[in-house]
Write a structure and sequence with these properties.
This protein is of the alpha/beta class and about 375 residues long. Helix content is about 35%, strand content about 30%. Helix 4 (about 65-85) crosses helix 7. The longest helix is centred in the last third of the chain and has 26 residues, at about 340-365. It is elongated and about 65 Å long. Bound molecules: glycine (GLY).
């Protein structure tokens, strides 16, 4: 391997890029994060932090096992990050109640739960009375519900804050406001071209969310990723008033430990437009109040949006590109927060293993 000051350059400092940098630095590699804006300020900042394969997978998919394995890995991931960074992270496993507004919806949920049981996603049916007992604020006009006991919520902003601290303490170099434009793989290193000049490293990782495939990699064609915009709204409520996640299809409500409650969401294919759409916000408020009627009396405190990184196949791209010194970790679409722990582990262990092979090769030839 050519002598370069950095082992790995990561393009993108969201939750995934920062987790990869953290894992690489734990393995003793010298990593740098180059972010076009600020660390964790895009999709990771916007995400609600629902860790809920039960709401996302309706049938067998190449990634549902990966999603479930990530959910199992989450408690240890959060605990390790909290202890290393000294930052506390709001992580709660209260499960999710998926409500059915009509008998037809209930039948559909029951059929889905049967399929999901085979996938390893457990859920149990709830009568309207059980919902009233467990979640008294939920609209009583329902046909029934399913409870997903393993679903959890995490505050992604607290994770990215903790990652930034853990990375800095381990000596990860962090460059904000530096957009990666192109990567040129050479025989034994990579050159990374940015608006702020050129960097060299042993490997490059592209983890730039919905912006990833704008980076050109000489000799490699990257799977296209594009933004799917989503709005969210937030309410300041008393703590411990909502309990489990409340869902109805892709409408959801979840509460942070301090009481701040988030309702989502929308899906729009409109590029990187950053202007909030008042009609979409009103629609989310109405759907939220349908699930939790007390919200009809409340005004939302804030609304925001983010850009989910979607690929044509709705699957993430995780692994080496056509060139083995360039690794990819993007396209997690609706489940980037959920799939962070094992995406980071997979990429960091792949690079670490090749770096060890490289050292072995070099020491043999000496
Ligand atoms: N994972 C929830 C969303 O993308 O809205």
């Amino acid at each position: 391997m050519k002598e370069v000051a950095l082992d790995v350059i990561i393009a993108g400092g969201g939750i995934i890029g920062s987790s990869i940098a953290w894992r690489l630095s734990q393995a003793g590699l010298r990593a740098a994060i180059l972010d076009a804006g600020r660390l964790g300020a895009e999709a990771s900042w916007a995400a609600a932090g629902m860790l809920a394969p039960g709401g996302e997978f309706e049938g067998s998919s190449p990634i549902h096992q990966f999603a479930l394995a990530n959910l199992r890995a989450y408690p240890a991931f959060v605990e390790e990050l909290q202890s290393e960074s000294g930052c506390s992270i709001d992580f709660q496993r209260f499960g999710a109640i998926e409500i059915a507004g009509s008998e037809a919806e209930w039948q559909r949920l029951a059929a889905r739960a049967e399929i999901q049981a085979e996938l390893g996603i457990s859920a149990s049916s709830m009568s309207p009375e059980q919902v009233r007992r467990e979640a008294p604020l939920v609209n009583p006009e329902i046909a029934g519900a399913f409870f997903y006991p393993e679903d959890a919520v995490v505050n992604p902003r607290e994770i990215t804050h903790a990652l930034s601290r853990a990375c800095r303490e381990r000596g990860v170099e962090i460059y904000e406001g530096v957009r990666v434009r192109a990567i040129r793989p050479e025989t034994d290193s990579v050159l990374v071209m940015t608006d702020a000049g050129q960097f060299a490293a042993g490997w490059a990782v592209i983890a730039a969310g919905a912006w990833s495939s704008m980076i050109t990699v000489e000799g490699c064609e990257l799977a296209r990723v594009f933004p799917v915009r989503g709005h969210l709204v937030g309410y300041s409520l008393e703590a411990e008033t909502v309990g489990p996640i409340i869902r109805r299809g892709h409408s959801y409500l979840l509460q942070r430990a301090g009481g701040f409650t988030i309702a989502g969401s929308s899906t729009e294919d409109c590029g990187f437009r950053r202007d909030l759409d008042r009609a979409i916000i009103t629609d989310i408020e109405n759907r939220a109040a349908q699930m939790l009627p007390m919200l009809a009396e409340r005004t939302t405190d804030t609304a925001w949006l983010g850009f989910r990184p979607a690929t044509e196949r709705e699957q993430p791209v995780i692994g080496p590109a056509a060139h083995p010194l360039v690794w990819l970790a993007y396209g997690h679409y609706r489940n980037g927060i959920l799939m962070t722990p094992l995406t980071a582990a997979r990429v960091a262990s792949g690079i670490t293993a090749s770096s060890e092979m490289d050292c072995f090769g070099r020491s043999e030839s000496h």
